[in-house]
């Protein structure tokens, strides 16, 4: 009787131990791509490793696709270091094509929405409704009219949540809302760390006349590690970036089949300063 070789399983376990050791010695986050090059395996293999290690609470998948040792929940400052080019591309497209004169624009908490906020902050023909600390800092010194929803500040994510925020949101109809996310799925929705986040994001997408989720490819390709999911109304669109990744194309196809409009913004050259 032949036996199943155990070497692949042993090699996988060893690689995952080395990933944890590497991240612990590194002291900061590392990208999926860098881990793929370091260990000489495909990005899809590394993603499976990362998903398994995250499920075991050994590492933390940071919004944007990076990973780090799970010592604490990553702050929005740490998340801000990821996917600069994609965030800039999505923000540039949204500011130019998805926001009209006199709009009341709701910006959910997040670093992608903050990137959009920086571009919109110089417009004095719109009103920006702020749902998070990172966005507030991005628009504070601009010329746009700014309103803050209020609520309880969750320091790590910079979100403004709770009954006050939800109650204020229910009394407003934004012309357009831009929603941030840690991960997004055509079947499950938006992955959220708190039930309060689920309530806020769903309310924002429902209340707004038009709503868009800003999701760089890592948010679409990753498996959500948080316990809660916010359903996405069919009329809510997805803004991501252009990519030749076949797995991304398949996942975007699932969004389209579910009735969501998908926009892939052109990538901008990286800042070399």
TrEMBL record:
Family matches, as Gene3D superfamilies: Winged helix-like DNA-binding domain superfamily/Winged helix DNA-binding domain
Key word Transcription present: yes
HTH deoR-type domain sequence ranges: 13-68
Top-level taxon in the UniProt lineage: Bacteria
Example of a GO MF term: DNA-binding transcription factor activity
Keyword terms, alphabetized: Transcription, Transcription regulation
InterPro entries (alphabetical): Carb_Metab_HTH_regulators, DeoR-like_C, DeoR_HTH, NagB/RpiA_transferase-like, WH-like_DNA-bd_sf, WH_DNA-bd_sf
PANTHER family documented for this protein: AGA OPERON TRANSCRIPTIONAL REPRESSOR-RELATED (PTHR30363:SF44), HTH-TYPE TRANSCRIPTIONAL REGULATOR SRLR-RELATED (PTHR30363)
Protein name: DeoR/GlpR transcriptional regulator
Lineage, top ranks: Bacteria, Bacillati, Actinomycetota, Actinomycetes, Propionibacteriales
């Amino acid at each position: 009787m032949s036996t199943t070789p155990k070497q692949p399983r042993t090699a996988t376990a060893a690689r995952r131990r080395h990933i944890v050791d590497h991240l612990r010695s590194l002291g900061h986050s590392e990208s999926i791509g860098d881990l793929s090059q370091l260990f000489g395996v495909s990005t899809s293999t590394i993603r499976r490793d990362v998903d398994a290690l995250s499920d075991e609470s050994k590492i933390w998948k940071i919004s944007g696709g990076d990973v780090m040792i799970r010592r604490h929940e990553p702050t929005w400052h740490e998340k801000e270091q990821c996917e600069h080019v994609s965030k800039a591309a999505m923000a540039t497209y949204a500011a130019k094509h998805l926001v009209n004169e006199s709009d009341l624009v709701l910006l959910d908490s997040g670093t992608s929405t903050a990137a959009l906020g920086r571009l919109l902050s110089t417009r004095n023909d719109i009103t920006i409704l702020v749902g998070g600390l990172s966005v507030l800092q991005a628009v504070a010194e601009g010329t746009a009219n700014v309103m803050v929803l209020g609520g309880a500040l969750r320091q790590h994510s910079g979100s403004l949540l709770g009954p006050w925020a939800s109650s204020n949101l229910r009394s407003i109809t934004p012309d357009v809302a831009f929603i941030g996310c840690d991960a997004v799925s055509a079947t499950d929705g938006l992955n959220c760390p708190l039930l309060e986040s689920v309530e806020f994001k769903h309310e924002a997408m429902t209340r707004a006349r038009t709503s868009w989720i800003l999701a760089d490819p890592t948010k679409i390709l990753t498996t959500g590690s948080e316990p809660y999911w916010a359903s996405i109304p069919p009329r809510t669109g997805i803004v991501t970036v252009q990519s030749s990744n076949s797995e991304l194309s398949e996942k975007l196809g699932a969004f389209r089949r579910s009735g969501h409009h998908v926009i892939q913004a052109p990538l901008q050259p990286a800042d070399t300063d």
